[in-house]
């Protein structure tokens, strides 16, 4: 079977892809890697937080599907609402929820530039996680745009499974995609007494620089910050 999150067969010559994003995102990404062998063990868990009553009449900004999942979890409809998104996948989820996507960018900084260039007159609301790497609200406020923010989810650490610890202590190749500085840091902190051959596939150089774990045998940075580029980079190590 291509996906195995419970038991592991450790004596295979083909590499195993270790997916450490939250479970829902890892399952979606694993489907893009079929028929590769994937193992899911999230190093973080998403916890939804109460949504404030300040969404009405504002143009939304989201940089992660987690924010949209938080809104949906709260039973709030964004049908017909205008929204800016980071990432094509996030934009697709917003469209599926009935939102009107005004703009999409590949990074938060690029989205800030795009919004400032348009200088919207509407009030903006950034739906964000507790931890952020780019302060979108501050940048937009500095540009004179009326911007609020609401923390709608937080991410808490989660330990790697025992099966994954057995995997990384075996003499085989393990490909480790890294989608954020946070995931790179938290995965690094948990890898001890590693015997596997590590291949890192960070989504950006900034994420690659955050790695503090065992020395990898290879590092392939995706040529653009997208799921498609990550899949290509991972599959380049599967041949």
Task: Please provide a written account of the structure.
The structure is a single chain. By secondary structure, the protein is an alpha/beta fold. It contains nine helices and eleven strands. The chain has a six-stranded mixed β-sheet, with helices on both faces. The chain folds into two domains: 16-43 and 158-235, Rossmann fold; 46-155, Rossmann fold (3-Layer(aba) Sandwich). 32% of the residues lie in helices and 25% in strands. Residues 1-11 have low confidence and may be disordered.
Short description:
With 239 residues, the protein is an alpha/beta fold. The chain contains nine helices and eleven strands.
Helix and strand arrangement:
Blueprint: E1 16-19, H1 23-32, E2 37-40, E3 44-48, E4 59-62, H2 65-73, E5 82-86, H3 88-96, E6 100-105, H4 108-118, E7 124-129, H5 136-142, E8 147-157, H6 162-168, E9 173-178, H7 181-190, E10 197-202, H8 205-209, E11 218-219, H9 227-235
């Amino acid at each position: 079977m291509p996906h195995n999150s419970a038991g592991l067969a450790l004596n295979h010559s083909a590499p195993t892809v270790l997916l450490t994003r939250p479970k829902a995102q890892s399952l979606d990404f694993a489907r893009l890697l079929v028929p590769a062998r994937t193992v899911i063990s999230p190093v973080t868990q998403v916890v939804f937080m109460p949504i404030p009553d300040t969404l009405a009449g504002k143009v939304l900004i989201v940089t992660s599907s987690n924010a949209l999942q938080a809104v949906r979890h709260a039973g709030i409809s964004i049908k017909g609402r205008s929204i800016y998104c980071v990432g094509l996948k996030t934009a697709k989820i917003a469209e599926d929820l009935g939102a009107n996507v005004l703009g999409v960018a590949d990074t938060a900084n690029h989205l800030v530039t795009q919004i400032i260039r348009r200088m919207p007159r509407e009030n903006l609301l950034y739906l964000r996680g507790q931890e952020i790497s780019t302060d979108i609200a501050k940048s937009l406020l500095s540009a004179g745009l009326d911007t609020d923010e609401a923390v709608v989810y937080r991410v808490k650490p989660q330990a790697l499974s025992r099966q994954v610890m057995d995997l990384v202590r075996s003499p085989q190749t393990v490909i480790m995609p890294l989608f954020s500085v946070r995931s790179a840091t938290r995965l690094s902190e948990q890898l001890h007494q590693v015997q596997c051959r590590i291949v890192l596939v960070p989504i950006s150089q900034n994420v690659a620089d955050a790695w503090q774990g065992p020395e990898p045998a290879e590092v392939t940075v995706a040529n653009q910050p997208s799921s498609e580029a990550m899949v290509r980079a991972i599959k380049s190590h599967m041949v």
